[in-house]
From TrEMBL:
This is Fungal-type protein kinase domain-containing protein.
């Protein structure tokens, strides 16, 4: 059994595999707290509708991604008559372990077991960004399965619901660039990104940073995990 006091990254591979299997068998539930009214304010986030939700199937029963604190996978709402996809939502099963879970700094308003801070921060930045530039911010649609800290049956886990970024992340886009077809080359590099795309990417990052500065002008906010793998590319959203 996976120890509930451990962070996902610190668990043994067999325990991590157990959590992945359980997550893929999880019956999708709407978030107990939809971010449409996060913090008592109408931030304008869309609601997640009820319906038939199914996880996408990947080779070897895999998930979209894993990280230091959990597992990420994609669920689709489908038409039960013809299985046409109607909506997509990414769910992050956060396995933070007891130390980080009980740290008030990881929760909005320092309230352990309330709203996860990462959800509040994303939506505050989204809300102060101009409507035309909100496509550069990945919104949090809600959170759920939070067990109050005083409960005995505590597993130190919760779920966060996010918009789906259709084009994955910047690292994947770089890897998917085709090889150069240059005869006689010892090592063929990948094709360079078109210059307009590079300028668009830097402009998108700058606009997201402006939103972060507006939201936390007096206290500041630092992204401690900025790298190509965390740069989500989508028509709808781009995480930074």
């Amino acid at each position: 059994m996976a120890l509930p006091t451990s962070r996902y990254y610190d668990m043994a591979p067999i325990a991590q595999a157990q959590l992945i299997r359980g997550f893929l068998r999880w019956a999708f539930r709407l978030p107990g707290n939809q971010a449409v009214t996060t913090g008592g304010q109408g931030l304008g986030q869309r609601a997640i509708a009820a319906g038939v939700w199914r996880p996408i199937v990947l080779p070897a029963n895999g998930v979209m991604a894993t990280g230091g604190e959990g597992i990420v996978h994609l669920w689709c709402r489908v038409d039960p008559n013809n299985l046409t996809i109607q909506d997509r939502v990414v769910v992050k099963n956060v396995v933070s372990g007891s130390t980080r879970y009980l740290d008030p700094h990881n929760w909005a308003s320092d309230t352990v077991g309330g709203e996860p801070l990462e959800c509040r921060q994303a939506n505050v930045v989204w809300s102060v960004t101009t409507p035309a530039d909100r496509k550069h911010i990945q919104a949090c649609l809600g959170w759920g399965d939070v067990v109050p800290p005083h409960y005995v049956a505590q597993n130190y886990r919760y779920k966060i619901y996010n918009e789906y970024c259709a084009h994955k992340n910047l690292h994947k886009i770089m890897k998917n660039q085709p090889k150069r077809k240059k005869k006689g080359a010892v090592r063929r590099g990948r094709r360079q990104f078109p210059e307009p795309f590079l300028w668009y990417m830097f402009e998108s990052l700058a606009k997201a940073c402006i939103g972060m500065n507006r939201a936390y002008m007096y206290t500041g906010v630092v992204h401690q995990d900025l790298h190509p793998g965390n740069g989500k590319q989508s028509i709808e959203a781009a995480d930074i």
